[in-house]
Amino acid sequence: MNLWLSPHGIWYYRKVTTLPCGRRKxxxxxxxxxxxxxxxxxxxxxxxxxxxxxKPIQLPAAPHEQSVAQPMTPATKPRAPLLSxxxxxxxxxxxxxxAPKERKNQKNYLGSFIEAIGDKPAAGYSKADxxxxxxxxxxxxxxxxxxxxxLQKLSLLFSWLANHQEGIVNHFAGLKLQRVKExxxxxxxxxxxxxxxxxxAKRQEPYRRWIALLGLYTxxxxxxxxxxxxxxxxxxxNIWCIKVQSGRPDQKLKTDNSKRLIPxxxxxxxxxxxxxxxxxVGGRLFVELPHRQDGYSHLWxxxxxxxxPVPKDFHSLRHTVATILKDKGIxxxxxxxILGHTNGAISYxxxxxxxxxxxxxxxxxxxx
Length: 368
Fold this sequence. Notes:
DNA polymerase, domain 1, 15 helices, hpI Integrase, Chain A, 6 strands, elongated, 3 domains, 3-stranded antiparallel beta sheet
């Protein structure tokens, strides 16, 4: 029935025809539904309307009419390029400075607007179109932060278009939602929740157990843990540490300050972590996780969101460690060295945070 499902889950009617010149042409029409049965019914109705449409009757021209000179038709004004074409130009230019993950996200953000409102010349969109798109985002269940990302990326696109073409207005300007601090989503784990988390982690298969416990006892980011190699577990001054670095092509850091040594908490060592590391010598610690454009943590994040023991995300563990270090009176430079933050002091902003690992170990053991 020539149905086509878009990456965003919307069904389209799709037909490929061959023009007289031999070139293939693809026709797509959105059916505005995510339900396949509804889409089939819509196509059937569409085809029935086309078949029943009366064809105009061509009458032969009278002899005297054939000799009458036809008036010259004015040259048609060239049509303005569609937003999809302009969006491709914008992304091609900006991709020079975008990371692969950002290029993928941008394509999704900009494509969602075209899919929801339709593809037309950039000057043809009204304020009502933009407000309608925003209302769709509000009804989608997305968080305020995610909605703002869509609005911000589209605002940047239309600002770029306004600088490159006449008559284009950025209707997205001023539409961002007022930021609301999502305290519940990123609040730290309570003592009871941490205990529940530990018991849950011990029941998981080994590689998931160690990712979870390292997150709880180091505050490291998910990808910092998931990309570790066995030789990133090192003995420094007789203290076992994990080395967060970007020493290999498949490793990356969020910032320069992320490069650091984190002493491994005694609870993790006593649970048998070093034996696990020994079994992975010569390669990655968590070979079960494949590499994606954004690193190794993609599948871990999906699995954790479905199986987490409490309704808080994995990054909240990082927030938990930061909060505990602060509440326990751990000096700022110590906390910054553990978490990979800058503290504004040049003497501390270098590999390892400029703090001896035995002091970091003492801070971690005392606080966690």
